[in-house]
Amino acid sequence: MSKVAVVFWSGTGNTEAMADAVAEGARTAGAEVDQVQATDFDASAVAGYDAVALGCPAMGDESLEEDEFEPMFEAAEAQLSGKKVGLFGSYDWGTGDWMDTWRERTEGDGAEVVATVIANLEPDDEALTSCKELGAALA
């Protein structure tokens, strides 16, 4: 059985709903899942997981949330090499460029990004299904 961490930050609940769907998809596929808010996640724990799903909405000029998520992600980056990673999050405006930048950064860390999922505001059924598929791919 694989072990998957679903680590997220959510300001409005949209990205949290996506995290719930990712976790559900991984569990349904047989993985042991720890779903944790970014502020409660110790980045050194990445080594204990077979795969990691990271969720953060676009903030400001299409960047990661700066006060809680970004510091956690920076601390985890050194451990992502060789890991299967999925990225997800919601956005309000723009085109989703933050996800492309985040994916490139994560791949630059040596991770295998298996999928990304974005949703404009509240995730619709299609986005939630994609999140479940992301979780299953990580399992």
List keywords for this structure.
Rossmann fold, 139 residues, 4 helices, globular, single chain, alpha/beta
Describe this entry's structure for a reader.
The chain is an alpha/beta fold. It has one domain: 3-Layer(aba) Sandwich (Rossmann fold). The protein is 35% helix and 24% strand. It contains four helices and five strands; from the N terminus they run βαββαβαβα. α2 links the parallel β3 and β4. The longest helix is centred in the first third of the chain and has 15 residues, at 14-28. The N and C termini lie close together (8 Å).
Can you identify the CATH superfamily?
Flavodoxin domain
Helix content: 25-40%
Radius of gyration: 13 Å
What integer is the average pLDDT? Answer: 96
User: Which CATH-level-2 architecture?
Assistant: 3-Layer(aba) Sandwich
Count of runs of 4 or more consecutive helical residues: 4
> How much β-strand is present in the residues?
15-25%
Class by alpha and beta content: alpha/beta
Stretches with pLDDT under 50, minimum 5 residues:
none
Shape: globular
Largest sheet geometry: 5 strands, parallel
CATH class type: Alpha Beta
Strand order across the largest sheet: 2-1-3-4-5
